[in-house]
Specification:
Blueprint (H helix, E strand, L loop, with lengths): L1 H21 L2 E3 L11 E3 L5 E2 L2 H12 L4 E2 L6 E2 L2 H12 L4 E2 L6 E2 L2 H12 L4 E2 L6 E2 L2 H12 L4 E2 L6 E2 L2 H12 L4 E2 L6 E2 L2 H8 L13 E2 L6 E2 L5
Helix pairs in contact: 1-2
InterPro entries: GLI_C2H2-zinc-finger, Znf_C2H2_sf, Znf_C2H2_type
Function: May be involved in transcriptional regulation.
Subcellular location: Nucleus
Amino acid sequence: MFRENHTELVGKKKKKKEKSLMSKSTTLYSEPGKSDFPVAFRDCGKNFHCQFQLKNHLRDHTGERPFACDKCGKRFKWKHSFNYHMMSHLGEKPFQCELCDKKFTRNGALKTHMTIHKGEKPFACIDCGKCFRLKSDLKGHMATHLGVKPFICGYCGGRFTHKGNMLLHVRLHTGENLLSCDKCDKKFTRKSILLTHMQCHEKKVPSGKGNFACEECGRRFVKKSL
């Protein structure tokens, strides 16, 4: 009963806030046809075709997420996002790649996947010219130029540019999902690093590699830090 009353109270507060925000909107042109965007919102200055678009936009300001998943409780601002999410529970993936048969719940995800086959990297860094497939990858890369490291390790305070690197680092503290060398007691966060390390135990170094030699025994290594 308390939960139902609390939910109802929260809903009323959000509607009241939305109504208050709606009162801040204004019709810029009273005569139809004088503007392609007759409705504007004073708080952010964005313009819209109609009140319906404005009402949807207000969710960005109010934080309202009216569409709730009854499977996991996750909430969404938009019905189409909710529908795509429900596909993940049902296992539905209607969008299929013609080149490798991979399937996706969203057409947008399929288009992003196709850039792998086409070799497209449409997002370029204006500072160094490096190109990326995803806008999110470019955003993370730009942080390296700005020196921004927003992700902080809760164990040692180490800072990282990318969340993925921080999560890998945390494994060193927790010991979770670490990859162990079966020749010695060293552990690694990435398989690629483990494979590189394993070369120091092998008798032969792959051709074209082994640029670092031990001054004591002459043994050669791929990396100086092994």
